[in-house]
Specification:
Blueprint lengths: L5 E8 L2 H18 L1 E6 L5 H11 L14 E4 L2 E5 L18 E5 L11 E9 L2 E9 L1
Parallel strand pairs: 2-5, 2-6, 4-5
Antiparallel strand pairs: 1-7, 3-4, 6-7
Helix pairs in contact: 1-2
Keywords: ATP-binding, Cytoplasm, Magnesium, Metal-binding, Nucleotide-binding, tRNA processing
Main location: cytoplasm
Pfam family, one: TsaE
């Protein structure tokens, strides 16, 4: 079995426009992998990341956290929040095929995706640190 390739990127963002720049760099990989696993503390910027990703995917709708509905769908994007979700992630798999899927709080579950972009966000004194691992 062929071992997946992994690439690690570290990016420091001082503001939201820096997050937009990061996504512009990652967009090709995100569109190839289709799965974005987001990890970070409350208020670290997971939903902000998805908001800017949606802009690059030409989604005009206002992106908000799906914390209480667990999933929101847009044209080309599925946004899932696992923070309070107790069910099985397989319930959402029908939505995965033709969409980019962004999963907040991905560290609360184990996944067996063969291709994905993992984004770990840390709050720093100067803004946010993004550790991005691309697996494909």
């Amino acid at each position: 079995m062929k071992k997946p390739k992994q690439h690690l990127y570290v990016f420091n963002a001082k503001n939201e426009s820096d997050v937009s720049i990061l996504i512009s760099y990652l967009l090709y990989e995100i569109q190839k992998c289709k799965i974005v696993l987001l990890e970070g503390d409350l208020g670290s910027g997971k939903t902000t990341f998805v908001k800017y990703l949606a802009l690059y995917l030409n989604i005009k709708e206002n992106i908000t956290s799906p914390s209480f509905s667990y999933m929101k769908t847009y044209n080309g994007l599925v946004h899932i929040d696992l923070y309070n979700y107790k069910g099985d992630i397989e319930e959402f798999e029908d939505y995965f095929e033709d969409n980019v899927v962004a999963i907040e709080w991905s560290n609360l579950r184990e996944f067996k995706f063969s291709k994905y972009v993992h984004v770990k966000i840390e709050i720093t004194k100067s803004g946010r640190k993004f550790e991005v691992t691309v697996v494909r």
